[in-house]
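Methods — Computational structure assignment.
A single polypeptide chain was analysed. Its primary sequence is given first, followed by the predicted tertiary structure written as structure tokens.
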Amino acid sequence: MAAMAFASASLLPSAGLAQETPAVAAIYEKAKAEGAVNSEGAWSQEQMQPLIEAFEARYPGVKVSYVNKAPDAQTVAALITEIEAGSSTLDVTGSAPTFLLPLMDRDLVLAYPDWGNLGLAPEMVKYDGRFLYLHDSVFVLAYNTDLVTPEEAPRQWKDLLDPKWKDGALILDSRGLFLSPLAVERGLGMDSVIEIASGLKEQNPLFVTRGSLALDRLSAGEGSIASVSLTFLLGRIAQGAPVAVAPVSPQANFPFGHAILKSGKHQNAAILWVSWLASPEARKIVDAQGIGFATPCGDTRGGKLLCDAKIELVTLESPEDVATSIEAFGKVTAALGTQAK
């Protein structure tokens, strides 16, 4: 497997596609003949819609069909089954390498060799052209400000094991994604992660299947503390919901991006769509929504929030990190008691 390093967001270029190059124009002509691209990913429909509208205005004749789908091992396994059965209509999938590796290992992802000619910076192109790094997906712990004061909010992971957070006070993602990446040595380490997961199970938390549901329940006061996506937390704070970030560190950062499936019927449209998502035009829309890169103390809203809370991130930077996280995923869900049977 090719080595992969994810640069700090502060080191990534602010521009992806610098201009409409001849290579982009050639891809656009082919994409118009295909007429459409079918894409899925972790961003909500509300977050993606401004991007779709801007892309379709920039490239008339190429329509984007998008489905929001939470990435996990089950959805990837289902996609592999569909591809092998010849029933998949998907062209582009958006996720993290943690989940995309099974697709890559089966040679189901297009290794496009000419991203550079389309204007993409090398830092965005990973896994031999099979993955484009486009944004960070950060987990944080948040608390309901109507139920918890800033002084009462946890400040380290072991604080979550205090008896006052028992019996539904904690709302946690059953997939354990908020913990498994921290198993790498520069995080908490495998033993500590499993110990924390075991302790959390004894707290009798409320488990949900995705971070957005945890945030819904936290905002409604159904619990005191929740593991949530930084992106969605920023949105709720902007809406005036009674939620705030807890200064617990470190936290997990999944480098997210997009991969193009070999089985897709609209590969040129897929290349045009994914490469445009790295463009300055798209990045402005992404950054305005707080769903871009999240380096602590960076220029984004997420970066500023992490900086103010003094939260450090553990980013999955290499294939070895991804492998450790995958190993930890099974152990964490087993310790939490949420492992799929």
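Note: Residues 1-18 have pLDDT under 50 and may be disordered.
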